[in-house]
Amino acid sequence: MNKSPFNTALAGYLFVAPAMIAIVVFFFGPALAAFILSFTDFDIYALADINNLRFVGLKNYSELLANPLFWTALKNTLFFVFVGGPLSMAASLSAAILLTENSVKLKAFIRTIFFAPVVTTLVATAVVFKYLLHTKYGFINFGLSKLGINPIDWLGDPHWAMPAIIVFAVWKNFGYNMVIFIAAIGSIPNDLYEAAKIDGASPWQRFLNVTLPALGPSILLVSIMTMTGYFQLFAEPYVMTQGGPAEQTVTVLYMMYEQGFKWWNLGSASAVAFVLFAMMLVMTLIQGQIAKLQGVK
Amino acid sequence: MEKLKSLFFNLIVWLLVFLVAFPLLWMVTTSFMHSGEAASFPPPLLPKSPTLNAYHELFAGNHIEVYFFNSVILAVCATILSLSFNVMAGYAFAKLRFKGRDAMFNSLLSALIIPAQVGMMPLFLLLKTFGLVNTYAGALVPWIASVFGIFMVRQFSQSIPDEMIEAARVDGANEFQIFTKLIIPNLTPILVTLGLFTFLGSWNDFMWPLIILTDNQSYTLPVALAVLSREHVQDSELMMAGAVITVLPVLLLFLVLQRYYMRGLLAGSVKG
Fold it and tell me: How far is residue B159's CA from residue B168's CA, in Å, rounded to a whole number?
């Protein structure tokens, strides 16, 4: 019995060691190394012979800021985050409200259908949408033609390519946040609604004054998760547009991939990665601050 | 009025169900069409005479079974790795007292704000040095342990009563026996959840396999599908068959284990 605390502590170290070592070696270590790498000119020559590697200070960062493609990629990424993100959340919230309506039947079945796109393979469904978005033979233009809308060259027109990717992303992702919202709506005490009803509040007023404030913490959490996730847009443009047309779907992460693994400029790719990281961090902090100001816990 | 409202809501919901399900249904029906059949106007909904041609071409001409096999092996191994590493660590962080435990756990949480892609360049170089490019091992490295997994197991382990563990200690069981005989059975639901998340995550993963598996023979299904779609732009029936083969296993797995999936989703989002 005397040895017990010692044994427990030893077991503790032994139990966490494998996971901790794996995370340090394969995650923290590489992340730190990427920071150092971003100050070097690591390229295909250094890949062949490490002696060609030199420290170049902030050159990768300054070249990045001078590269027009970076600003295009940044604009495209921010468009996806700030247009696609809120649209996705609005879709999630609307679906959650519909599925908590008393009059809607077969809720479990409908919820499963709405959630199915989330678990499907991104690359596979992106390919499906590539064909659905086809100008001539795609069902989306066919459907729109029934509404009297002329065919749109979704993935070939620089103005429409990113909106098309957003349409896909909303379809693919809205089910995830919907489930979180459904749970949050379910935990709002019913007497709040009863009281509002007695006060003569309309359904819309009840939504604005009861549902929305009660959902505050969930909305904050969901918006942070969604937006930081949307900063990492990559597979959709890779599969659907290859960054085109006219570079209108090149994203920051797409640029990192091309710099790093197409041109083997691993130094400058690391700089791109850290700029992305910095933006995501700022975004998270701002949303945290907003929440604090509004008194959301 | 109430009736009208109810009708209205149900109408909207079923319209949405149709819109959401349509891409997946179309994927399935198109995969049974003859080559070139989908490229006509108006776009056909159902195959004129259903055929397995597209599937046949995928196996005979494009060896999709190789990619399928790669995807299965990787997803199974990732699940096993995650279930051993994360579960041990998660339990220890919850229930075993040792010096530096909380500091260690908090430093792990800080990893959640670092996007996984940041370390990909050095990780590639590291694995290249050890000759692990184009190997299963190289593709599995990011799946060995995850902060999310450890966090989830820790949350769940905290609900195991200390008295139960203490009683086992008094009975003379050592820590390893307690873990395997007492803790694991109590954690079963969360093990299913974690295993499911890992399997789906590995199966659907794209960027890391794209980087580390550059040889045609080592592609996973998503990587192969992305490459195929660039080569066979016109061949929608072939691509839809490929999409069906890629999506179907995970969709079925999800449908069977949906309960466990939702539990993990909500646990991860409440404090994640």
Answer: 17
